[in-house]
Amino acid sequence: MCSATIGISPVMSSPVITRFAPSPTGFLHIGGARTALFNWAFARHTGGKMLLRIEDTDRERSTEAAISAILDGLKWLGLSWDGEAVSQFARADRHREVANDLLKRGRAYYCYCSPEELEAMRARAEAEKRPVRYDGTWRDRAAGDAPAGVKPVIRFKAPQEGETVINDHAQGRVVIPNKDLDDLIILRSDGNPTYNLSVVVDDHDMGVTHIIRGVDHLTNAARQTQIYLAMGWDVPDMTHVPLIHGPDGAKLSKRHGALGVEAYRAMGYLPAALRNYLARLGWSHGDDEIFSTAQLVEWFGLEAIGKSPARFDFAKLENLNGHYIRATPDEVVLKEFLAFLPHVAGGPEMLAALEGGRMAAFTRALPGLKERAKTLVELQTSAAFLFASRPLPLDDKAKGLLNDEGRAALRGVVPVLEGLAEWIAPAMEAAVKAHAEAAGLKLGKLAQPLRAALTGSATSPGIFDVLEVLGREEALARIKDHSA
RNA sequence: GCGCCCUUCGUCUAUCGGUUAGGACGACAGCCUUUCACGUUGUAAAGACGGGUUCGACUCCCGUAGGGCGCGCCA
Protein backbone atom coordinates (compact mmCIF):
# COMPACT_ATOMS: atom_id res chain seq x y z
CA MET A 1 0.00 0.00 0.00
CA CYS A 2 1.01 3.53 -0.60
CA SER A 3 0.53 5.50 2.52
CA ALA A 4 -0.88 8.90 1.84
CA THR A 5 1.01 11.49 3.79
CA ILE A 6 -1.44 14.26 3.27
CA GLY A 7 -5.12 14.71 3.77
CA ILE A 8 -6.69 11.33 4.15
CA SER A 9 -5.83 9.24 7.15
CA PRO A 10 -4.79 5.71 6.25
CA VAL A 11 -7.50 4.21 8.38
CA MET A 12 -10.27 6.17 6.74
CA SER A 13 -8.92 6.05 3.23
CA SER A 14 -11.33 4.76 0.65
CA PRO A 15 -10.27 2.60 -2.29
CA VAL A 16 -8.06 4.41 -4.74
CA ILE A 17 -9.70 5.79 -7.85
CA THR A 18 -7.47 7.29 -10.50
CA ARG A 19 -8.40 8.54 -13.91
CA PHE A 20 -6.86 9.20 -17.27
CA ALA A 21 -8.45 12.20 -18.94
CA PRO A 22 -7.17 12.90 -22.44
CA SER A 23 -8.66 15.49 -24.74
CA PRO A 24 -9.50 13.96 -28.11
CA THR A 25 -7.79 16.47 -30.34
CA GLY A 26 -5.20 14.04 -31.69
CA PHE A 27 -3.70 10.64 -31.09
CA LEU A 28 -2.48 9.30 -27.78
CA HIS A 29 0.92 10.89 -27.50
CA ILE A 30 3.80 9.31 -25.67
CA GLY A 31 3.58 11.58 -22.65
CA GLY A 32 -0.11 10.82 -22.32
CA ALA A 33 0.67 7.13 -22.60
CA ARG A 34 3.04 7.36 -19.67
CA THR A 35 0.50 9.32 -17.64
CA ALA A 36 -2.03 6.60 -18.38
CA LEU A 37 0.52 3.95 -17.41
CA PHE A 38 1.20 5.62 -14.06
CA ASN A 39 -2.49 5.98 -13.32
CA TRP A 40 -3.05 2.40 -14.30
CA ALA A 41 -0.11 1.03 -12.32
CA PHE A 42 -1.08 2.97 -9.23
CA ALA A 43 -4.68 1.81 -9.41
CA ARG A 44 -3.63 -1.80 -9.88
CA HIS A 45 -1.02 -1.52 -7.14
CA THR A 46 -3.55 -0.35 -4.62
CA GLY A 47 -6.32 -2.62 -5.78
CA GLY A 48 -8.27 0.43 -6.87
CA LYS A 49 -9.72 1.54 -10.16
CA MET A 50 -8.65 3.63 -13.11
CA LEU A 51 -11.40 5.54 -14.83
CA LEU A 52 -11.28 6.98 -18.31
CA ARG A 53 -12.76 10.35 -19.16
CA ILE A 54 -12.70 11.95 -22.56
CA GLU A 55 -12.36 15.69 -22.21
CA ASP A 56 -14.33 16.66 -25.25
CA THR A 57 -15.77 19.98 -24.20
CA ASP A 58 -13.96 21.76 -27.01
CA ARG A 59 -16.44 20.98 -29.75
CA GLU A 60 -14.31 22.59 -32.42
CA ARG A 61 -11.30 20.40 -31.97
CA SER A 62 -12.62 17.14 -30.58
CA THR A 63 -13.06 14.35 -33.09
CA GLU A 64 -14.40 10.82 -33.10
CA ALA A 65 -11.25 9.70 -34.91
CA ALA A 66 -9.12 10.99 -32.06
CA ILE A 67 -11.27 9.21 -29.51
CA SER A 68 -10.83 5.87 -31.22
CA ALA A 69 -7.11 6.51 -31.72
CA ILE A 70 -6.73 7.07 -27.99
CA LEU A 71 -8.79 4.03 -27.09
CA ASP A 72 -6.85 1.90 -29.56
CA GLY A 73 -3.59 3.19 -28.20
CA LEU A 74 -4.53 2.34 -24.64
CA LYS A 75 -5.70 -1.11 -25.64
CA TRP A 76 -2.55 -1.78 -27.62
CA LEU A 77 -0.46 -0.76 -24.63
CA GLY A 78 -2.48 -3.11 -22.49
CA LEU A 79 -3.86 -0.41 -20.22
CA SER A 80 -7.42 -1.25 -19.34
CA TRP A 81 -9.78 1.10 -17.61
CA ASP A 82 -12.71 0.38 -15.33
CA GLY A 83 -16.22 1.04 -16.47
CA GLU A 84 -17.30 2.95 -19.53
CA ALA A 85 -15.33 5.91 -20.83
CA VAL A 86 -17.06 9.08 -19.65
CA SER A 87 -17.75 11.91 -22.05
CA GLN A 88 -17.15 15.20 -20.34
CA PHE A 89 -19.31 17.07 -22.81
CA ALA A 90 -22.26 14.87 -21.94
CA ARG A 91 -22.05 16.14 -18.39
CA ALA A 92 -22.33 19.82 -19.27
CA ASP A 93 -25.68 20.21 -17.52
CA ARG A 94 -24.16 19.13 -14.25
CA HIS A 95 -21.27 21.56 -14.77
CA ARG A 96 -23.70 24.41 -15.36
CA GLU A 97 -25.51 23.42 -12.21
CA VAL A 98 -22.33 23.76 -10.20
CA ALA A 99 -21.50 27.07 -11.87
CA ASN A 100 -24.90 28.38 -10.75
CA ASP A 101 -24.37 26.95 -7.32
CA LEU A 102 -21.12 28.87 -7.09
CA LEU A 103 -23.01 31.97 -8.18
CA LYS A 104 -25.53 31.46 -5.38
CA ARG A 105 -22.76 30.95 -2.86
CA GLY A 106 -21.28 34.29 -3.91
CA ARG A 107 -18.19 32.51 -5.17
CA ALA A 108 -18.78 33.43 -8.80
CA TYR A 109 -20.16 36.37 -10.75
CA TYR A 110 -21.31 37.48 -14.17
CA CYS A 111 -18.74 39.27 -16.30
CA TYR A 112 -19.87 41.29 -19.30
CA CYS A 113 -16.49 41.97 -20.85
CA SER A 114 -16.33 41.06 -24.52
CA PRO A 115 -13.50 38.97 -25.93
CA GLU A 116 -12.25 42.14 -27.63
CA GLU A 117 -12.12 44.03 -24.36
CA LEU A 118 -10.22 41.18 -22.79
CA GLU A 119 -7.81 41.10 -25.67
CA ALA A 120 -7.22 44.84 -25.23
CA MET A 121 -6.73 44.31 -21.52
CA ARG A 122 -4.07 41.69 -22.22
CA ALA A 123 -2.33 43.85 -24.81
CA ARG A 124 -2.21 46.77 -22.42
CA ALA A 125 -0.78 44.68 -19.64
CA GLU A 126 1.85 43.29 -21.94
CA ALA A 127 2.80 46.73 -23.26
CA GLU A 128 3.18 48.00 -19.72
CA LYS A 129 5.03 44.82 -18.75
CA ARG A 130 2.48 43.98 -16.14
CA PRO A 131 1.29 40.45 -15.52
CA VAL A 132 -1.59 39.60 -17.83
CA ARG A 133 -4.61 38.97 -15.68
CA TYR A 134 -8.29 39.77 -15.66
CA ASP A 135 -8.60 43.08 -13.86
CA GLY A 136 -11.77 42.26 -11.94
CA THR A 137 -13.93 44.83 -13.70
CA TRP A 138 -17.16 42.97 -12.94
CA ARG A 139 -16.10 41.29 -9.74
CA ASP A 140 -18.03 43.54 -7.40
CA ARG A 141 -20.44 45.36 -9.65
CA ALA A 142 -24.14 45.40 -8.94
CA ALA A 143 -26.46 43.37 -11.13
CA GLY A 144 -28.11 46.56 -12.29
CA ASP A 145 -24.94 47.65 -14.08
CA ALA A 146 -25.29 44.87 -16.62
CA PRO A 147 -25.31 46.20 -20.17
CA ALA A 148 -28.37 45.21 -22.16
CA GLY A 149 -28.06 42.57 -24.83
CA VAL A 150 -24.71 41.23 -23.73
CA LYS A 151 -24.40 37.55 -22.89
CA PRO A 152 -22.18 37.32 -19.84
CA VAL A 153 -19.72 34.66 -18.85
CA ILE A 154 -19.53 33.37 -15.30
CA ARG A 155 -16.22 33.89 -13.58
CA PHE A 156 -15.00 32.22 -10.46
CA LYS A 157 -14.40 34.66 -7.62
CA ALA A 158 -10.93 33.61 -6.66
CA PRO A 159 -9.41 34.60 -3.34
CA GLN A 160 -7.15 37.61 -3.79
CA GLU A 161 -5.18 37.35 -0.62
CA GLY A 162 -3.12 34.55 0.80
CA GLU A 163 -1.88 31.59 -1.08
CA THR A 164 -3.01 28.28 -2.45
CA VAL A 165 -1.05 25.22 -1.47
CA ILE A 166 -0.75 22.04 -3.46
CA ASN A 167 0.60 19.06 -1.59
CA ASP A 168 1.94 17.14 -4.50
CA HIS A 169 3.54 13.71 -4.36
CA ALA A 170 6.02 14.45 -7.11
CA GLN A 171 6.46 18.19 -6.74
CA GLY A 172 6.32 18.44 -2.99
CA ARG A 173 4.57 21.38 -1.33
CA VAL A 174 3.95 23.97 -4.00
CA VAL A 175 2.78 27.38 -2.88
CA ILE A 176 1.16 29.77 -5.34
CA PRO A 177 0.33 33.33 -4.26
CA ASN A 178 -3.36 33.96 -4.84
CA LYS A 179 -2.65 37.37 -6.28
CA ASP A 180 -1.15 35.62 -9.26
CA LEU A 181 -4.30 33.68 -10.01
CA ASP A 182 -7.09 35.68 -11.61
CA ASP A 183 -10.82 35.09 -11.83
CA LEU A 184 -11.10 32.39 -14.42
CA ILE A 185 -14.12 31.88 -16.62
CA ILE A 186 -16.04 28.81 -15.60
CA LEU A 187 -19.03 29.19 -17.91
CA ARG A 188 -18.74 30.65 -21.39
CA SER A 189 -21.17 33.20 -22.77
CA ASP A 190 -22.73 30.42 -24.84
CA GLY A 191 -23.49 28.61 -21.62
CA ASN A 192 -20.85 25.92 -21.99
CA PRO A 193 -18.55 25.09 -19.10
CA THR A 194 -14.80 25.45 -19.35
CA TYR A 195 -12.11 22.95 -18.55
CA ASN A 196 -11.18 23.88 -15.01
CA LEU A 197 -14.77 23.74 -13.81
CA SER A 198 -15.60 20.54 -15.66
CA VAL A 199 -12.52 18.76 -14.37
CA VAL A 200 -13.27 19.58 -10.77
CA VAL A 201 -16.93 18.60 -11.01
CA ASP A 202 -16.18 15.38 -12.84
CA ASP A 203 -13.32 14.31 -10.63
CA HIS A 204 -15.49 14.96 -7.62
CA ASP A 205 -18.58 13.24 -8.99
CA MET A 206 -16.58 10.28 -10.24
CA GLY A 207 -15.06 9.86 -6.82
CA VAL A 208 -11.50 10.33 -8.01
CA THR A 209 -9.15 10.08 -5.05
CA HIS A 210 -5.83 10.49 -6.84
CA ILE A 211 -5.05 12.77 -9.75
CA ILE A 212 -1.89 11.86 -11.66
CA ARG A 213 -1.16 14.05 -14.68
CA GLY A 214 1.54 16.16 -16.36
CA VAL A 215 3.13 19.16 -14.61
CA ASP A 216 1.71 21.34 -17.30
CA HIS A 217 -1.40 21.20 -15.14
CA LEU A 218 0.26 22.41 -11.98
CA THR A 219 -1.15 25.94 -12.15
CA ASN A 220 -4.54 24.47 -12.98
CA ALA A 221 -4.21 22.39 -9.84
CA ALA A 222 -4.13 25.60 -7.82
CA ARG A 223 -7.21 27.03 -9.49
CA GLN A 224 -8.99 23.72 -9.20
CA THR A 225 -8.09 23.54 -5.54
CA GLN A 226 -9.79 26.89 -5.02
CA ILE A 227 -12.93 25.57 -6.68
CA TYR A 228 -12.92 22.42 -4.56
CA LEU A 229 -12.62 24.58 -1.48
CA ALA A 230 -15.36 26.93 -2.61
CA MET A 231 -17.66 23.95 -3.08
CA GLY A 232 -16.64 22.44 0.23
CA TRP A 233 -15.37 19.30 -1.47
CA ASP A 234 -12.36 17.19 -0.57
CA VAL A 235 -9.34 17.98 -2.68
CA PRO A 236 -7.97 14.80 -4.30
CA ASP A 237 -4.42 13.67 -3.72
CA MET A 238 -2.29 15.17 -6.49
CA THR A 239 0.78 14.02 -8.38
CA HIS A 240 2.15 16.13 -11.20
CA VAL A 241 4.56 14.17 -13.32
CA PRO A 242 7.40 15.91 -15.17
CA LEU A 243 7.12 16.08 -18.93
CA ILE A 244 8.97 13.93 -21.47
CA HIS A 245 11.34 15.83 -23.69
CA GLY A 246 12.83 14.95 -27.05
CA PRO A 247 16.41 13.68 -27.40
CA ASP A 248 17.61 17.28 -27.76
CA GLY A 249 15.98 18.43 -24.55
CA ALA A 250 13.27 20.41 -26.23
CA LYS A 251 9.64 19.53 -25.93
CA LEU A 252 8.79 16.31 -27.71
CA SER A 253 7.38 17.26 -31.09
CA LYS A 254 6.80 16.15 -34.64
CA ARG A 255 10.41 16.90 -35.34
CA HIS A 256 11.42 13.93 -33.21
CA GLY A 257 9.27 11.56 -35.19
CA ALA A 258 7.09 9.34 -33.12
CA LEU A 259 4.43 11.28 -31.31
CA GLY A 260 1.53 8.91 -31.10
CA VAL A 261 1.73 5.41 -29.72
CA GLU A 262 0.60 4.00 -33.05
CA ALA A 263 3.86 5.29 -34.47
CA TYR A 264 5.70 3.15 -31.94
CA ARG A 265 3.65 0.18 -32.97
CA ALA A 266 4.59 0.82 -36.60
CA MET A 267 8.25 1.02 -35.61
CA GLY A 268 7.95 -2.51 -34.31
CA TYR A 269 8.06 -2.02 -30.57
CA LEU A 270 6.33 -4.49 -28.30
CA PRO A 271 3.77 -3.09 -25.88
CA ALA A 272 5.54 -4.79 -22.98
CA ALA A 273 8.85 -3.17 -23.93
CA LEU A 274 7.29 0.25 -24.29
CA ARG A 275 5.57 -0.13 -20.95
CA ASN A 276 8.85 -1.06 -19.30
CA TYR A 277 10.67 1.81 -20.97
CA LEU A 278 8.02 4.37 -20.14
CA ALA A 279 7.84 3.24 -16.54
CA ARG A 280 11.57 3.85 -16.22
CA LEU A 281 11.21 7.40 -17.47
CA GLY A 282 10.65 9.47 -14.37
CA TRP A 283 10.08 6.58 -12.03
CA SER A 284 12.53 4.12 -10.55
CA HIS A 285 12.77 1.14 -8.29
CA GLY A 286 16.41 1.05 -7.23
CA ASP A 287 18.63 -0.31 -9.95
CA ASP A 288 15.93 -2.36 -11.61
CA GLU A 289 15.83 -1.80 -15.34
CA ILE A 290 14.00 -4.75 -16.78
CA PHE A 291 10.87 -5.82 -14.99
CA SER A 292 7.58 -7.39 -15.86
CA THR A 293 4.30 -5.56 -15.78
CA ALA A 294 3.37 -7.62 -12.74
CA GLN A 295 6.48 -6.35 -10.99
CA LEU A 296 5.70 -2.80 -12.03
CA VAL A 297 2.28 -3.14 -10.44
CA GLU A 298 3.82 -4.63 -7.33
CA TRP A 299 6.47 -1.94 -6.99
CA PHE A 300 4.79 1.17 -8.30
CA GLY A 301 4.40 4.06 -5.91
CA LEU A 302 3.92 7.78 -6.19
CA GLU A 303 6.86 8.58 -3.91
CA ALA A 304 9.40 7.22 -6.40
CA ILE A 305 8.38 9.58 -9.18
CA GLY A 306 11.13 12.08 -9.98
CA LYS A 307 10.82 15.83 -10.40
CA SER A 308 12.97 16.56 -13.41
CA PRO A 309 11.99 16.07 -17.03
CA ALA A 310 13.42 13.10 -18.92
CA ARG A 311 14.65 12.87 -22.47
CA PHE A 312 13.32 10.17 -24.70
CA ASP A 313 16.11 7.79 -25.73
CA PHE A 314 15.32 5.59 -28.69
CA ALA A 315 18.55 3.61 -28.32
CA LYS A 316 17.54 2.42 -24.89
CA LEU A 317 14.01 1.62 -26.00
CA GLU A 318 15.45 -0.40 -28.86
CA ASN A 319 17.74 -2.32 -26.56
CA LEU A 320 14.85 -3.12 -24.25
CA ASN A 321 12.69 -4.11 -27.16
CA GLY A 322 15.33 -6.53 -28.41
CA HIS A 323 15.44 -8.03 -24.98
CA TYR A 324 11.70 -8.47 -24.95
CA ILE A 325 11.60 -10.01 -28.40
CA ARG A 326 14.21 -12.56 -27.37
CA ALA A 327 12.61 -13.29 -24.02
CA THR A 328 9.07 -13.64 -25.33
CA PRO A 329 7.86 -17.13 -26.29
CA ASP A 330 7.73 -17.80 -30.02
CA GLU A 331 3.99 -18.11 -30.18
CA VAL A 332 3.53 -14.74 -28.50
CA VAL A 333 6.06 -13.05 -30.78
CA LEU A 334 4.23 -14.60 -33.71
CA LYS A 335 0.94 -13.20 -32.47
CA GLU A 336 2.45 -9.73 -32.01
CA PHE A 337 4.10 -9.92 -35.39
CA LEU A 338 0.88 -10.84 -37.16
CA ALA A 339 -0.90 -7.98 -35.40
CA PHE A 340 1.92 -5.66 -36.37
CA LEU A 341 2.07 -6.46 -40.09
CA PRO A 342 -1.07 -4.57 -41.14
CA HIS A 343 0.49 -1.36 -39.85
CA VAL A 344 3.71 -1.31 -41.89
CA ALA A 345 4.89 -1.04 -45.44
CA GLY A 346 5.09 -4.46 -47.04
CA GLY A 347 3.33 -5.94 -44.04
CA PRO A 348 0.02 -6.81 -45.67
CA GLU A 349 1.86 -8.60 -48.49
CA MET A 350 3.86 -10.65 -46.05
CA LEU A 351 0.72 -11.41 -44.11
CA ALA A 352 -0.92 -12.67 -47.28
CA ALA A 353 2.07 -14.86 -48.06
CA LEU A 354 2.04 -16.29 -44.55
CA GLU A 355 -1.63 -17.10 -44.75
CA GLY A 356 -1.05 -18.46 -48.25
CA GLY A 357 1.12 -21.30 -47.04
CA ARG A 358 4.36 -19.85 -45.73
CA MET A 359 3.36 -19.95 -42.10
CA ALA A 360 5.05 -23.24 -41.35
CA ALA A 361 8.40 -22.12 -42.72
CA PHE A 362 8.16 -18.83 -40.87
CA THR A 363 7.33 -20.54 -37.62
CA ARG A 364 10.35 -22.79 -38.01
CA ALA A 365 12.59 -19.82 -38.76
CA LEU A 366 11.25 -17.67 -35.95
CA PRO A 367 13.57 -18.85 -33.15
CA GLY A 368 16.62 -17.94 -35.23
CA LEU A 369 15.07 -14.72 -36.46
CA LYS A 370 13.90 -13.31 -33.16
CA GLU A 371 17.31 -13.82 -31.62
CA ARG A 372 18.62 -11.12 -33.92
CA ALA A 373 15.78 -8.61 -34.15
CA LYS A 374 15.57 -5.48 -32.03
CA THR A 375 12.23 -4.53 -33.51
CA LEU A 376 9.45 -6.24 -35.39
CA VAL A 377 10.53 -4.22 -38.41
CA GLU A 378 13.91 -5.92 -38.26
CA LEU A 379 12.14 -9.23 -37.90
CA GLN A 380 10.13 -8.45 -41.00
CA THR A 381 13.24 -7.47 -42.95
CA SER A 382 15.27 -10.45 -41.88
CA ALA A 383 12.44 -12.83 -42.72
CA ALA A 384 12.19 -11.56 -46.26
CA PHE A 385 14.41 -14.32 -47.66
CA LEU A 386 11.77 -16.86 -46.74
CA PHE A 387 9.32 -15.23 -49.09
CA ALA A 388 11.63 -14.43 -51.98
CA SER A 389 11.20 -16.26 -55.23
CA ARG A 390 14.03 -17.69 -57.33
CA PRO A 391 16.36 -16.69 -58.61
CA LEU A 392 17.05 -14.65 -55.50
CA PRO A 393 18.13 -11.05 -55.95
CA LEU A 394 21.46 -10.42 -54.25
CA ASP A 395 22.55 -7.40 -52.32
CA ASP A 396 26.04 -6.00 -52.88
CA LYS A 397 27.71 -7.94 -50.11
CA ALA A 398 26.10 -11.15 -51.28
CA LYS A 399 27.35 -10.49 -54.79
CA GLY A 400 30.83 -10.04 -53.42
CA LEU A 401 30.67 -13.36 -51.61
CA LEU A 402 29.58 -15.16 -54.76
CA ASN A 403 32.76 -14.54 -56.69
CA ASP A 404 34.62 -17.32 -58.49
CA GLU A 405 35.96 -18.68 -55.24
CA GLY A 406 32.61 -18.62 -53.58
CA ARG A 407 30.83 -20.31 -56.42
CA ALA A 408 33.49 -23.02 -56.53
CA ALA A 409 32.96 -23.62 -52.84
CA LEU A 410 29.23 -23.98 -53.43
CA ARG A 411 29.76 -26.48 -56.23
CA GLY A 412 31.90 -28.51 -53.89
CA VAL A 413 29.31 -28.60 -51.13
CA VAL A 414 26.29 -29.48 -53.26
CA PRO A 415 27.05 -33.22 -53.48
CA VAL A 416 27.66 -33.29 -49.74
CA LEU A 417 24.20 -31.90 -49.07
CA GLU A 418 22.54 -34.00 -51.74
CA GLY A 419 23.98 -37.11 -50.16
CA LEU A 420 22.33 -36.43 -46.82
CA ALA A 421 19.71 -38.90 -45.72
CA GLU A 422 18.02 -36.45 -43.38
CA TRP A 423 17.55 -32.73 -44.06
CA ILE A 424 18.12 -31.53 -40.53
CA ALA A 425 20.49 -28.90 -39.22
CA PRO A 426 22.76 -31.06 -37.02
CA ALA A 427 23.32 -33.56 -39.84
CA MET A 428 24.14 -30.79 -42.29
CA GLU A 429 26.44 -29.10 -39.86
CA ALA A 430 28.39 -32.31 -39.29
CA ALA A 431 28.62 -33.08 -42.98
CA VAL A 432 29.59 -29.59 -44.07
CA LYS A 433 32.17 -29.24 -41.32
CA ALA A 434 33.71 -32.56 -42.28
CA HIS A 435 33.76 -31.46 -45.89
CA ALA A 436 35.40 -28.17 -45.02
CA GLU A 437 38.04 -29.90 -43.00
CA ALA A 438 38.77 -32.38 -45.75
CA ALA A 439 39.04 -29.60 -48.28
CA GLY A 440 41.22 -27.52 -45.98
CA LEU A 441 38.69 -24.69 -45.92
CA LYS A 442 37.67 -22.55 -43.00
CA LEU A 443 33.96 -22.92 -42.33
CA GLY A 444 33.40 -19.28 -43.13
CA LYS A 445 34.58 -19.85 -46.66
CA LEU A 446 31.65 -22.16 -47.15
CA ALA A 447 29.07 -20.63 -44.86
CA GLN A 448 29.20 -17.15 -46.29
CA PRO A 449 28.68 -18.10 -49.94
CA LEU A 450 25.90 -20.42 -48.80
CA ARG A 451 24.30 -17.57 -46.90
CA ALA A 452 24.54 -15.31 -49.91
CA ALA A 453 22.97 -17.86 -52.23
CA LEU A 454 20.25 -18.87 -49.79
CA THR A 455 19.23 -15.49 -48.45
CA GLY A 456 20.63 -12.95 -50.91
CA SER A 457 22.33 -11.26 -47.98
CA ALA A 458 25.52 -11.46 -45.96
CA THR A 459 23.71 -11.78 -42.66
CA SER A 460 21.10 -14.25 -41.52
CA PRO A 461 20.37 -16.74 -38.78
CA GLY A 462 22.69 -19.72 -38.45
CA ILE A 463 23.28 -21.13 -41.91
CA PHE A 464 22.30 -24.71 -41.07
CA ASP A 465 19.02 -23.52 -39.65
CA VAL A 466 18.43 -21.56 -42.82
CA LEU A 467 19.07 -24.69 -44.89
CA GLU A 468 16.68 -26.71 -42.81
CA VAL A 469 13.94 -24.10 -42.79
CA LEU A 470 14.09 -23.66 -46.55
CA GLY A 471 13.79 -27.39 -47.17
CA ARG A 472 15.91 -29.64 -49.35
CA GLU A 473 14.44 -28.81 -52.70
CA GLU A 474 14.29 -25.03 -52.35
CA ALA A 475 17.69 -24.81 -50.68
CA LEU A 476 19.50 -26.86 -53.28
CA ALA A 477 17.78 -24.96 -56.07
CA ARG A 478 18.86 -21.61 -54.59
CA ILE A 479 22.44 -22.85 -54.27
CA LYS A 480 22.50 -24.11 -57.84
CA ASP A 481 21.05 -20.82 -59.09
CA HIS A 482 24.16 -19.03 -57.84
CA SER A 483 26.91 -21.59 -58.16
CA ALA A 484 27.12 -21.85 -61.91
C1' G B 1 7.18 40.43 -17.91
C1' C B 2 4.95 37.59 -13.66
C1' G B 3 4.41 32.77 -11.09
C1' C B 4 5.87 27.75 -10.26
C1' C B 5 9.40 23.92 -11.05
C1' C B 6 14.03 21.52 -12.50
C1' U B 7 19.81 20.74 -12.71
C1' U B 8 24.44 13.47 -10.66
C1' C B 9 28.44 10.15 -16.55
C1' G B 10 26.19 11.73 -23.77
C1' U B 11 21.02 9.51 -22.00
C1' C B 12 17.68 7.14 -18.04
C1' U B 13 18.66 6.88 -13.02
C1' A B 14 20.55 5.05 -7.55
C1' U B 15 22.15 7.88 -3.38
C1' C B 16 17.36 9.89 1.38
C1' G B 17 24.90 14.12 5.74
C1' G B 18 30.02 9.97 6.12
C1' U B 19 30.27 5.42 -0.50
C1' U B 20 36.71 4.22 -4.25
C1' A B 21 29.35 8.40 -6.14
C1' G B 22 26.39 2.44 -7.93
C1' G B 23 23.44 0.37 -12.14
C1' A B 24 21.46 0.49 -17.20
C1' C B 25 21.56 2.24 -22.44
C1' G B 26 25.06 4.22 -25.68
C1' A B 27 30.57 4.60 -26.84
C1' C B 28 35.41 2.25 -27.01
C1' A B 29 38.67 -2.26 -26.56
C1' G B 30 39.05 -7.65 -26.04
C1' C B 31 36.89 -12.64 -25.96
C1' C B 32 33.23 -16.01 -28.28
C1' U B 33 31.90 -17.02 -33.45
C1' U B 34 29.84 -19.60 -40.15
C1' U B 35 27.61 -13.72 -40.89
C1' C B 36 24.66 -10.66 -37.90
C1' A B 37 22.87 -10.51 -33.27
C1' C B 38 23.29 -12.55 -28.40
C1' G B 39 26.60 -13.48 -24.51
C1' U B 40 30.95 -12.18 -21.84
C1' U B 41 35.43 -9.28 -19.84
C1' G B 42 37.30 -4.59 -19.37
C1' U B 43 37.93 0.96 -20.20
C1' A B 44 36.51 6.01 -20.51
C1' A B 45 32.47 8.91 -18.60
C1' A B 46 28.86 12.78 -13.65
C1' G B 47 27.30 15.93 -8.65
C1' A B 48 25.97 23.45 -13.44
C1' C B 49 28.56 27.60 -10.75
C1' G B 50 29.38 30.59 -6.15
C1' G B 51 28.55 31.18 -1.17
C1' G B 52 27.01 29.39 3.52
C1' U B 53 25.32 25.50 7.65
C1' U B 54 28.11 21.21 9.60
C1' C B 55 33.42 17.57 12.45
C1' G B 56 31.72 16.12 7.50
C1' A B 57 27.91 17.83 1.99
C1' C B 58 25.62 15.30 -4.44
C1' U B 59 22.34 15.30 -0.25
C1' C B 60 20.17 21.11 3.94
C1' C B 61 19.91 26.87 3.12
C1' C B 62 20.84 31.35 -0.04
C1' G B 63 22.36 33.40 -4.62
C1' U B 64 23.85 33.05 -9.95
C1' A B 65 23.51 30.69 -14.59
C1' G B 66 20.98 27.45 -17.78
C1' G B 67 16.43 24.79 -18.85
C1' G B 68 11.10 23.52 -18.46
C1' C B 69 5.94 24.57 -17.55
C1' G B 70 1.95 27.99 -16.87
C1' C B 71 -0.30 32.90 -17.58
C1' G B 72 -7.23 31.60 -23.65
C1' C B 73 -14.89 32.40 -23.64
C1' C B 74 -8.08 25.48 -25.34
C1' A B 75 -7.72 21.21 -22.68
Which helices and strands occur, and which strands form pairs?
Elements (H helix, E strand, L loop, with lengths): L16 E4 L9 H17 L2 E6 L9 H14 L8 E2 L4 H13 L3 E4 L3 H13 L25 E4 L6 E6 L3 E6 L7 E3 L7 H11 L4 E5 L3 H14 L5 E5 L2 E2 L15 H6 L4 H9 L13 H7 L10 E2 L2 H14 L2 H11 L6 H24 L5 H7 L1 H4 L8 H6 L2 H15 L6 H15 L3 H13 L7 H8 L1 H10 L3
Parallel strand pairs: 1-2, 2-3, 9-10, 11-12
Antiparallel strand pairs: 4-5, 5-8, 6-7
Helix pairs in contact: 1-9, 3-5, 5-6, 8-10, 11-12, 12-19, 16-18, 16-20, 17-19, 18-19
The structure holds one RNA strand of 75 nucleotides.
Question: Which features characterize this protein?
Answer:
three-stranded parallel sheet, three-stranded antiparallel sheet, single chain, 12 strands, 48% helix, RNA-binding, mainly alpha, 484 residues, disordered N terminus
